[in-house]
Fold this protein.
Amino acid sequence: MSPALALVLWWLAFGGTHMVMSAIPVRSRLVAAIGERAFLGVYSLVSFATFIPLVACYLGNRHQGPQLLALGHLPGVRWLALAIAWARLPLANRP
């Protein structure tokens, strides 16, 4: 399996389990069946079981292939980013 496909599948698993388990009908049935604290424990275990492989997959393959969002080499991007960052600073923190 390609790293990109594995990354997409782990993202879908992580997001999908969060969406399904936090949906009100599913959550209320699970809480009624096993209790609130047990549900939170299962939810946490499922979250870790999908998030840890997602991060491992990303970190193991982060330098593979083209960098799609590396725009710093384009003319004007650096100065635009600095201007946006400066504009978002609170007035008290500006130089």
